[in-house]
């Protein structure tokens, strides 16, 4: 067959590869990815330019969206109105764009995912910020290209005085790549740009001080900064977003989780349906109902929680299993010099600055050319003014305009442009006043030309012009941050994450029963009250009572010096009347031993010591003390560890967390006390024994240590006797002594007061919880207990029933009772430091 010159033979594989690459590049450059300079995709840029061409500006009347889409489709974007209208709608939605570029009127959809009305029913116009984006467009600041039909010109990029890419972000899917850029706050972006202009070598840390993270239009929370830093440093990162919530009391003792802000791009209607399905399927037993009460005043979704379920635990479940917590995956991909490139935050800032510098240079050059033309004409006016009579005579003597023009050129050395300007001059400009105006105008134009030349020739001046424009934009359009950045990172959920962090009272009875009770279970009473019941088992006595945080670790010390560990939340919460569970159900205590000391710590891998004191019940008539590094207790086995080699007959009574140079005070049953520095007892290994702490007088064989505490000069020592009497004394009244002595008197123990049963170092705003042998409990304000001298008897704290006596006391730290535990509105539990 003869070869046909109109046809060529090609390999199918090569042709498919070449055609697909061409298609892919077309999608990447002409459709899916934004330009780093103005942050717009071609369709967005064409819509805004078409609206400007229609004079549909921010101060004009609204125009039907159908007309806008038709103009865009007919002149610039050949892919149909069905593609253009959704893009226009998104640029008008305040929940999609941090700074909408289009001001819409009508139904443009909702955050519930409702569809917008058809374009024949909606109207729109440009916003002031979109006008800033196109400012100076007619001053030859950007390149232009033919439209698809080669009948009109369209801008290839906008001048972009408004940093749209950084402020509004962008999303797009191309072939083999995608972009997902988060929005930011305009004020913070402007501050970051100013920082880069002032300090071009500034670091990412310095940038993040003024631009801490994205700012989403739907408010909400950003959990942690790790994902932000990764995105800013590498262009890729995962930012955890969370709804803003708070907990309100509901009817009949129920709780209500109230959602007021959602993570970015979360559909509220779908979220409500998902929570309703959880309630219906009982996936979390305790979520009863969900209702959406959102209106024009704001968002409000209420989730009803059963009265016996902790609402914080329900909230944590919802954060894990619904879109109340989502992830925004940052892919900072945009077109740089018409090629896809990953742009970390500093690169994006620098590319914007480079674009604005180019725009300002081109604008200045354009203005310079216009100013030079005006100066040239004004020079002609000055020639005419200086030779006014001759010019008038020449014009009157000329046959026609052409002859007059030639005469002006030949006689006065004017250019054709100047000659035409003089010939077109109006007669009123020949007055003396007008001549002064011409001269002033010439000087003004000359100064403007000099100024423009200085800007073009001086980089610092040009940068100052850019800086002043950024400052003006910030001051005019800047607003406050919407999305709050929470310091806590939102990692993977563990069982501990589902336990609310709150304060509680741990009670261990004489018979070894343990329970955890909310602080609020013990109502506050005035000093001298009768108290409330603590247990249904009247013959059992509370032996240990202490305050804990549910996420802290409790160390249990036995009378024989062995230590065990347990998380506070592993002890089930129970009511005041509950008996509790045997402590041996939770820790593997060696047979015959019993818990005699406890301490709650947040972290064992920190500096500090565990200072342990015995009661002094052995034959040697003294109590012992020992210090061991806190880190030695970081890894405690299930069957415990030896913490103190106890002398026969003695028993361990207290474990204090000390810092290495604290004073320790010990109080005995007979009213003696001793204060000394912990360094008097040298640090020893975990399994070693102790040294003498306090000696008891020989005439009292029943004396023993009943309390041990750290000294704080700003606090007072509160001492309580077994008959319900107590007093406070400034710790400054107790002088520092040497370890091992018998101490000084701290309370005058009489038949009225009884022997001392306990003591606490307290502050004015603390509360005191007093427990009796018959299970009564009373909580009172410490400041109601009068401060007295060291040897006084004190005042009555509790009215005891016949045959009852005080068995133990516990200090409740200020700010952790009476409902004043501060829960953040986000649903994050407050952390109470030790």
UniProtKB/TrEMBL annotation:
The keyword Kinase does not apply. Residues 449-476 form a coiled coil. It holds the Pfam family DNA_topoisoIV. It comes from Fimbriimonas ginsengisoli Gsoil 348. Keywords: Coiled coil, DNA-binding, Isomerase, Topoisomerase. GO terms for molecular function: ATP binding; DNA binding; DNA negative supercoiling activity. The active site is at 121 (o-(5'-phospho-dna)-tyrosine intermediate). Its EC number is 5.6.2.2. Heterotetramer composed of ParC and ParE. This is DNA topoisomerase (ATP-hydrolyzing). GO terms for biological process: DNA topological change. It is an enzyme of class 5 (isomerase). GO terms for cellular component: cytoplasm; DNA topoisomerase type II (double strand cut, ATP-hydrolyzing) complex. InterPro entries: GyrA/parC_rep, Gyrase/topoIV_suA_C, Topo_IIA-like_dom_sf, Topo_IIA_A/C_ab, Topo_IIA_A_a_sf, Topo_IIA_dom_A, Type_II_DNA_Topoisomerases. Belongs to the type II topoisomerase GyrA/ParC subunit family. Residues 33-498 form the Topo IIA-type catalytic domain. It catalyses: ATP-dependent breakage, passage and rejoining of double-stranded DNA.
């Amino acid at each position: 067959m003869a070869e046909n010159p109109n046809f060529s033979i090609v390999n199918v594989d090569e042709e498919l590869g070449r055609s697909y690459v061409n298609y892919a590049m077309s999608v990447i450059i002409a459709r899916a990815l934004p330009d780093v300079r103005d942050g717009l995709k071609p369709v967005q840029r064409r819509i805004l330019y078409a609206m400007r061409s229609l004079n549909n500006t921010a101060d004009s009347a609204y125009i039907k969206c159908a007309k806008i889409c038709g103009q865009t489709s007919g002149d610039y974007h050949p892919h149909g109105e069905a593609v253009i209208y959704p893009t226009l709608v998104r640029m008008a939605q305040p929940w999609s764009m941090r700074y909408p570029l289009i001001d819409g009127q009508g139904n443009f959809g909702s955050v519930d995912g409702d569809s917008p009305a058809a374009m024949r029913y909606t109207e729109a116009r440009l916003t002031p910020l979109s006008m800033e984006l196109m400012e100076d467009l007619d001053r030859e600041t950007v390149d232009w290209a033919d439209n698809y039909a080669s009948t009109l010109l369209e801008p290839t990029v906008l001048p972009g005085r408004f940093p749209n890419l950084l402020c509004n972000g962008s999303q797009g899917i191309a072939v083999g790549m995608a972009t997902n850029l988060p929005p930011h706050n305009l004020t913070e972006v402007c501050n970051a740009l100013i920082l880069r202009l002032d300090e071009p070598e500034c670091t990412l840390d310095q940038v993040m001080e003024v631009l801490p993270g994205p700012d989403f239009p739907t408010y909400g929370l950003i959990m942690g900064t790790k994902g932000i830093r990764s995105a800013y440093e590498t262009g890729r990162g995962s930012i955890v977003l969370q709804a803003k919530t708070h907990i309100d009391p509901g009817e009949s003792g129920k709780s209500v989780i109230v959602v007021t802000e959602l993570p970015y791009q979360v559909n509220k209607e779908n979220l409500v349906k998902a929570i309703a399905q959880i309630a219906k399927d009982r996936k979390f037993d305790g979520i009863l109902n969900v209702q959406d009460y959102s209106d024009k005043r704001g968002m409000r979704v209420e989730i009803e929680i059963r009265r016996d379920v902790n609402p914080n635990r329900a909230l944590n479940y919802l954060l894990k299993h619904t879109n109340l917590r989502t992830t925004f995956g940052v892919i900072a991909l945009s077109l740089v010099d018409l090629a896809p490139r990953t742009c970390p935050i500093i690169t994006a800032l620098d590319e914007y600055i480079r674009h604005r510098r180019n725009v300002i240079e081109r604008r200045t050059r354009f203005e310079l050319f216009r100013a030079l033309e005006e100066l040239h004409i004004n020079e002609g006016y000055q020639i005419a003014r200086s030779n006014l009579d001759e010019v008038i005579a020449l014009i009157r003597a000329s046959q026609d305009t052409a002859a007059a023009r030639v005469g002006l050129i030949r006689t006065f050395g004017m250019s054709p442009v100047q000659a035409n300007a003089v010939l077109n001059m109006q007669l009123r400009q020949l007055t003396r006043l007008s001549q002064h105006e011409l001269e002033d105008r010439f000087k003004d134009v000359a100064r403007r030309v000099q100024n423009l030349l200085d800007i073009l020739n001086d980089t610092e001046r040009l940068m100052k012009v850019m800086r002043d424009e950024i400052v003006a934009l910030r001051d005019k359009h800047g607003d406050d941050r919407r999305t709050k950045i929470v310091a806590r990172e939102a990692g993977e959920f563990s069982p501990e994450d589902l336990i609310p962090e709150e304060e509680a009272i741990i009670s261990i009875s004489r018979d070894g029963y343990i329970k955890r009770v909310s602080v609020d279970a013990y109502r506050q009473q005035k000093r001298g009250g009768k108290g409330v019941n603590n247990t249904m088992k009247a013959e059992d006595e509370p032996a240990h009572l202490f305050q804990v945080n549910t996420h802290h670790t409790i160390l249990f010390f036995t009378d024989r010096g062995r230590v065990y560990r347990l998380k506070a939340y592993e002890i089930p919460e129970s009511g005041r009347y509950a008996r509790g569970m045997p402590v041996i159900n939770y820790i593997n205590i060696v047979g015959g031993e019993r818990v005699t000391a406890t301490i709650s710590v947040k972290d064992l891998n920190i500096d500090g010591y565990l200072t342990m004191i015995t009661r002094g019940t052995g034959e040697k008539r003294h109590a012992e003390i020992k210090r061991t590094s806190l880190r030695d207790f970081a890894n405690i086995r299930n069957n415990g560890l030896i913490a103190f080699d106890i002398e026969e007959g003695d028993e361990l009574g207290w474990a204090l967390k000390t810092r290495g140079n604290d004073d320790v005070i010990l109080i005995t049953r007979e009213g003696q006390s001793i204060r000394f520095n912990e360094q008097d007892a040298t640090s020893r290994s975990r399994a070693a024994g102790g040294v003498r702490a306090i000696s008891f007088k020989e005439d009292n064989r029943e004396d023993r240590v009943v309390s041990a505490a750290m000294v704080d000069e700003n606090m007072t020592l509160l001492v309580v006797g077994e008959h319900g009497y107590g007093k406070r004394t400034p710790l400054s009244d107790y002088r520092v002594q040497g370890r091992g002595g018998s101490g000084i008197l701290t309370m005058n123990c009489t038949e009225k007061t009884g022997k001392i049963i306990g003591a606490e170092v307290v502050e004015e705003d603390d509360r005191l919880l007093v427990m009796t042998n018959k299970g009564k409990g009373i909580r009172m304000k410490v400041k109601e207990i009068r401060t007295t001298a060291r040897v006084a008897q004190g005042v009555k704290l509790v009215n005891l029933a016949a045959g009852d006596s005080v068995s133990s006391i516990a200090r409740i730290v200020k700010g952790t009772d009476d409902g004043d535990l501060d829960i953040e509105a986000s649903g994050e539990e407050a952390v109470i430091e030790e």
